[in-house]
Amino acid sequence: MSAGDRLRIGIHFDLVCPWCYIGKRQLTLARSRFAEASPEVAIESTWRPVQLLPEVPEQGLPFAEFYERRLGSAEAVRQRRMQVSMAARAVDLELDLAAIERMPNTARAHGLLRRAGTLGDPGLYEAMLERLFAAYFQRGEDIGDAATLRALAIEVGVPESLVDAAPGEAHNVPASSAISGVPNFNFNGHLSLSGARDAAVLFMAMSKAVQMSVVTEAGDRLDRFQPFAGRQRGPKGSP
Q1: In Å, how far are 132, 158, 161, 169, 206 from 135, measured between CA atoms?
Q2: Taking the model in full, what pTM does it have?
Q3: pLDDT of 117 over the 60 cut
Q4: 107 with 166, same domain?
Q5: 56 and 44 within one domain
Q6: pLDDT at 171 over 50
Q7: How far is it, in rounded angstroms, from Cα 117 to Cα 113?
Q8: What is the CATH number of the domain that holds 218?
Q9: Are residues 2 and 79 in the same domain?
Q10: CATH no. for residue 112?
């Protein structure tokens, strides 16, 4: 497979970030458009968890108090909710931020996603990811609670044996020092975008990244060829 036949997308995210949920929806729209425009290109998406608030205790914190303290006032919280809700509706997402009672520690949920990822089924992984986002932002469920996570995973179709495996890994959440904010999208290692970008912007980045990969591959081939192309023949009888 040549460089022009592959599109690898890396997405850094956290489950308590509403912009990550909105960005996921924008990415889905962009991928569908790109797949229609370039059906010959295989798309591979890799989701990489980043725990934004590792200091949140395992049992979580009261959501309203947490955000009022974080943003400075109840009015600031109200305005932020309006901003997020408007951005969500633009991609046909209806969020119920008022239903959220707890700010969870997301380590356990990320651990569940990593175990689901070991099945090698991208569709199941993204279904689990979607279910976690929807549980939190649309239904106000506590995705830091072990029993809640177990029920959600079984509902999606994750095998019970995997759901119950290695509960101690919940606190071992990978992060990247190179990522300062989420969502963050990386395309073929060439282009990186942060924030819940519009699907049209993500589509253009996908197209550009594939083009850059083709150019890079052509340059590598030229570099390998040049030592031979530049070789001069010596006088008659010499090697």
Answers
A1: 5, 16, 22, 22, 29
A2: 0.85
A3: yes
A4: yes
A5: no
A6: no
A7: 6
A8: 3.40.30
A9: no
A10: 3.40.30.10
Q: Let me know whether 155 and 112 are in one domain.
A: yes
Least confident residue range of 30-39, 185-194, 222-231 = 222-231
Percentage of residues of the chain with pLDDT beyond 70: 82
pLDDT tens digits along 122-165: 999 999 999 999 999 999 999 999 999 999 999 999 999 888 87
Tokens of 116: 């689901």
Residues 136 and 103: their CA atoms lie apart, in Å, by 10
Is there a single domain that holds both residue 182 and residue 163? no
Are residues 76 and 116 both part of a single domain? yes
Per-residue pLDDT band at 214 (split at 50, 70, 90):
confident
Same domain, 73 and 185: no
Whether 157 is in a domain gets the answer: yes
What's the CA gap between 105 and 90, in Å, rounded?
28
**Are 136 and 97 in contact, with CB atoms under 8 Å apart?**
no
Burial 192-209 (b: 16+ CB within 10 A, else e): ebebbbebeebbbbbbeb
Judge whether 24 and 150 are in contact, CB under 8 Å: no
pLDDT-based confidence at 178, cuts 50/70/90?
low
Residues 8 and 95 occupy one common structural domain? no
Structural domain containing residue 94? 52-172
Inside any domain, residue 238: no
Q: What is the mean pLDDT of the chain?
A: 87
